[in-house]
């Protein structure tokens, strides 16, 4: 049975979750900085809840047929800002080296800056499966790094897998845009 479109105010829930994800970033920053050198279970919980709402808001918007231009723009922006904030803070706290952070941030800057050009050229963005997996692996790795002590190997391995997927997704987006606008 197909889901029906829902009415106001329930129809605003997916966008409200996205806005909440943006609003929680300062709280996350404070929790990380109050933790012990990048170890903060509270920050990990906030970050994990943010990742969960990322999945819920998109699922609800599609299921209820209330996808919006705002959501198409703000949802990936909230993901990028939350993940970028997390990895930068973990680098500041010495839990991650700076070189992979530069790759994550560089990819996001290119995608955000390039999206203006691509949209003006008629390209309509859609998240690739690799991009979705990369986002989930990065979210998971940041949570794992935050809730474990320094020197725990698994979260770092997970982060580098996410980094590889992020690079692959970025290259995939660049080729898709290039093919669409040439």
List key phrases describing it.
mainly alpha; 0% strand; single chain; 7 helices; 182 residues; Four Helix Bundle (Hemerythrin (Met), subunit A)
3D architecture notes:
- The structure is a single chain.
- It is built from seven helices and no strands.
- It has 182 residues and is an all-alpha fold.
- The protein starts with 12 loop residues before the first helix and ends with a helix.
- The mean pLDDT is 89.
**Class inferred from helices and paired strands:** mainly alpha
Classify the fold: give the CATH topology: Four Helix Bundle (Hemerythrin (Met), subunit A)
How much helical structure, as a percent, in the residues? over 70%
- What's the level 1 CATH class? Mainly Alpha
Q: What's the tally of helices?
A: 7
* Beta-strand percentage range: under 5%
Tell me the radius of gyration.
17 Å
Q: Roughly what is the average pLDDT, rounded to an integer?
A: 89
- Mind summarizing the main beta sheet? none
Terminal-residue CA separation: 41 Å
């Amino acid at each position: 049975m197909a889901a029906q479109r829902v009415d106001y105010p329930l129809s605003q829930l997916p966008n409200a979750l996205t806005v909440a994800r943006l609003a929680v970033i300062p709280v996350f920053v404070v929790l990380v900085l109050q933790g012990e050198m990048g170890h903060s279970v509270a920050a990990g919980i906030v970050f994990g809840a943010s990742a969960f709402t990322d999945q819920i808001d998109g699922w609800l918007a599609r299921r209820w047929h209330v996808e919006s231009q705002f959501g198409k723009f703000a949802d990936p922006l909230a993901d990028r800002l939350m993940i970028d904030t997390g990895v930068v803070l973990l680098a500041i706290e010495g839990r991650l080296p700076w070189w992979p952070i530069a790759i994550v941030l560089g990819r996001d800057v290119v995608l955000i800056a390039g999206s203006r050009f691509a949209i003006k050229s008629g390209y309509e963005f859609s998240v690739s499966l690799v991009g979705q997996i990369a986002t989930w692996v990065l979210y998971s790795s940041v949570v794992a790094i935050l809730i474990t002590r320094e020197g725990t190997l698994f979260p770092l391995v997970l982060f580098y897998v996410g980094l590889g997927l992020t690079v692959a997704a970025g290259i995939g987006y660049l080729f898709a845009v290039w093919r669409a606008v040439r």
